[in-house]
Structures are given as C-alpha cells and as structure tokens.
Amino acid sequence: MSFERKKILVLGAGYAGLQMVSNLQKKLSFQDADITLINKNEYHYESTWLHETAAGTMEWQDGVYPINKVIDAQKVVFVPAEVTAINKDEQTVETTHGNFDYDILVVALGFESETFGIDGMADHAHSIVNPQTAVKAYREIEENIANYKRSNDQKDLSILVGGAGFTGIEYLGELVESVPELCEKYGVDYNKVNITCVEAAPKMLPMFPENLVQYAMKFLEDRGVKFMVNTPIVAANEDGFIVEVNDEKQQLEANSVIWTAGVRGSKLMDETFEGVKRGRLVVEPDLTAKGYDNIYVIGDVAAVMNGEGENARPYPTTAQIAMQLGEHTAKNIELTLKGDKKEPFVFSDKGTVCSLGSNDGIGLVLGREIKGKKAAFMKRVVDTRAVFKIGGPLLAYSKGKMF
Ligand SMILES: Cc1cc2nc3c(=O)[nH]c(=O)nc-3n(C[C@H](O)[C@H](O)[C@H](O)COP(=O)(O)OP(=O)(O)OC[C@H]3O[C@@H](n4cnc5c(N)ncnc54)[C@H](O)[C@@H]3O)c2cc1C
Fold it and tell me: 115 — alpha (psi -120 to 50), left (phi > 0) or beta?
C-alpha cells in the first residue's frame, strides 16, 4: 500500500479501541500510518468480568493485561495518559501527558456510572465501572461481614444491590457464591445475611424470554436473594436506600450498598459534540461523527442505530458490539487510506449469556435458549474469545477462562 503517512489517534483501550488497534496494526505497515493509542491505565481491563472482582470471586489482576502485550511497538505508540479535552475543529487532543494532533481520530472512551440524578447515590453507593471501584465494593462487603462479630449490627450483614439488569443479576450470581465463603471465614451464619435486589421496572432482564428470567430468579432466590421489583429507589443515604412502595417512602437498611443499574458514555462526549445523550453520540452508518468524516466514535460512547427513520433505536451498548465496531473501523480506515469508499457497519448479533456464578447461567445463543452448566460453559467460551480476538492464542491461554 502506498499513500501519504497519516496520523491516527485512538482514545481508549477498552474492547472497542484495542480491537480496532489490534486489527489496524495487522492491515497497515509502519510506512502507512503513524498510530498513537492513549489510555488512562497501562493495562486493558475486561469490563465484562468486573462483577467477579466486585464480589471477590476474581482478583482484579486476573482480569487485566498490559496493553504493550497486544500492540506492535513497531507500528503503534502507546501513551498512558488521561484525555482531558478533544478539540475537534483544531484536530487536537489534550491529555495529562501533553497535546496530540491527528488526521484521523477514533474516540473509544467507554462508560461511566450513571445515577440518573438519584439523590445521594453517587456518594453512598459503590458502582462497578473499573477495577478500582470493583475492589472497593468487595472490600466494603468483606469488612462489614468481618465486623459483625464485634458490632452485632444487622446492617453489617445486609447487602443492597440497586438494579436487576444484566450487571445486577451477574453480580448477584457471584455474591451467592462468595458471601457464604466470607461467612465461613469470619464465623458468621449465612442465614443471617440479607441480600436484597431493588429494581424499578416490573420485569428483570428484558432481553431474555420469561422462562429463562424465572430460572435466574429462582436460582438466586434459592440462595437467599430477595427481589423487590417495581420498586423505585428515590434516594441513597448512609443507612442504605430509600424506596417507594405503594406511594410510601421506606428506608432499606444496609452497610453494603452497590449500584449496578446504570452506565453512560464518557462525560468528555458531552463536552465535545452536540446532541450527545447520556454520553452517547448518534453516529453515521460508517461510524463517523456527523460533519466530521475523520472522527470515528465507537463502543459505549456511540449510539449505533438499528433501523431507519422514526423506528430507529440504538443497539444496546455491549462488549460484543464494541468489538465489532472496532473491527469495522479498522477496515474503514484502511479503505480511506487507499482512497476507497467507507462501508456502513452491520451488526451481527451472536446472542447473550448471563452468568449465575461460575457454574450456572442463562443465555440466548444464535437464537437458541440455554441454561445451567451449558450456559456457564458458553460464558467461558465468550469471555475467552474476547481475549483471543484482541490478543491472540497466547494471551487467550494465559488470561482466558478455558484453560
Ligand atoms: C459488570 C459488567 C458486566 C458486563 N457484562 C457484559 C457481557 O457479558 N457482555 C457484553 O457484551 N457486555 C457486557 N458489559 C458491557 C461492556 O463491558 C461494555 O459495553 C464495554 O466495556 C464497552 O467497551 P468500550 O471499549 O466502549 O469501553 P470500555 O470497556 O469502558 O473501555 C474504555 C477505555 O477507555 C479508558 N478511558 C476512559 N476515559 C478515559 C480518558 N479520559 N482518558 C484516557 N482513557 C480513558 C478506560 O480506562 C478504558 O480502558 C458489562 C459491563 C459491566 C460493567
């Protein structure tokens, strides 16, 4: 390939950004482009495994790997830094490690916690959005259970989980595995523990058919989880959640409080683009920002529309689509550099698997329903595949969940 050497700047090394770089470095030679990747940490973390760290069933180090391990240093410069501003008209990016200019920009800055303005939630509940927050959430649970012998305070044995969405259910699945072990470690009777999940919507896990939802609920209820559905949380405070039941406010008490019910795209999106909703920008079919055909926006900061006109709805933001967006962007950048036309993105939905701890789960895979051990096995395949697709067989062997 021979063309003018362009500066390609990639922001964020999550599933979208790192998949994009991993593919692009295979397509281009050193002479073709000057690729720079900027990410807050020196490591990539598997966001889809964070609930395990937050429940104590996985050490945070097991869910991360150094970014340098997957990039080709001959072709890509990696800069560990925090992006602080994107100046799209000047074609520059400001970071804690200096400013960078670009010809082509890929924004893949991922998700943050969203508390929907619920009073006190950001201050009084833990969120699960990166390895640090996940470790903090687990430490709180462990410290409270350890403290019970001294305090004899039921609040130390009460855990409140806000949200029965995908993350909430996967988290509860891990908790019912780890909390009995913690109880044993600190000499506490597990029957005294209250794990309560509060959900505003009448139905959990809307992406799954009712029989699979019932299976997941029964699995968790059999292990001591209490569900309060149709119950909006109106505030969080030092005692737990305030919820609304039959138009009356009620205080739910707990010393361990975790919020799993909302994420949004990076706040930098609101500062950079117009028309951004909850940190997500509606992108063009080729994944660029409207009016800026040299800026790609991918992963959880993108609203990729499914359908056309009034019926168009954004696809849910997931690791699965983030990786496909990364692959597609690498392809479109290669086409652009060759002087060819970019192609529109088409999502290929492989299905969804929701784990219930390490040995159970529910899933819809290629249109087929699965549950139990089969789903747990499929989840390990999906998790390992994600590592393999970005880092290849050696990384999948050392970090994946199949070996
Ligand atoms: C507990 C949990 C379980 C999940 N389970 C699933 C699942 O089973 N299946 C599924 O498909 N999806 C799942 N998801 C959703 C999935 O994790 C996200 O959709 C996915 O991580 C989005 O990928 P991304 O690359 O856009 O962003 P991210 O993974 O958030 O990566 C963004 C990267 O950018 C970096 N960054 C952010 N801001 C800055 C900045 N200012 N400067 C520099 N770097 C920055 C971050 O450190 C990070 O490395 C789950 C999410 C959670 C929280």
Answer: alpha
Ligand 1: residue of 93, 170, 297, 318 to mutate (most ligand atoms within 8 A of CB) is 318
| Model ipTM value | 0.98
> Which pLDDT tens digit goes with each residue over 329-373?
999 999 999 999 999 999 999 999 999 999 999 999 988 999 999
Which residue spans of the chain are classified as CATH 3.50.50.60? 121-261
What lies within 8 Å, CB to CB, of 234 at 6+ separation is 118, 119, 242, 243, 244, 249
Establish whether residue 197 lines the binding site of ligand 1, counting it when its CB lies within 6 angstroms of any ligand atom. no
Cα atoms in the 13 Å half-sphere on the side-chain side of 54? 31
Q: Where in the chain is the domain with CATH 3.50.50.100?
A: 6-113+264-350
pLDDT digit string, tens, across residues 204-250: 898 899 999 999 999 999 999 999 999 999 999 999 999 999 999 99
**CATH 1.20.1530.20 corresponds to the domain 6-113+264-350:** no
**CATH class, range 121-261:** alpha beta
Interval between CA 129 and ligand 1 midpoint (Å)? 8
Ligand 1 centroid vs 156 CA: distance in angstroms?
31
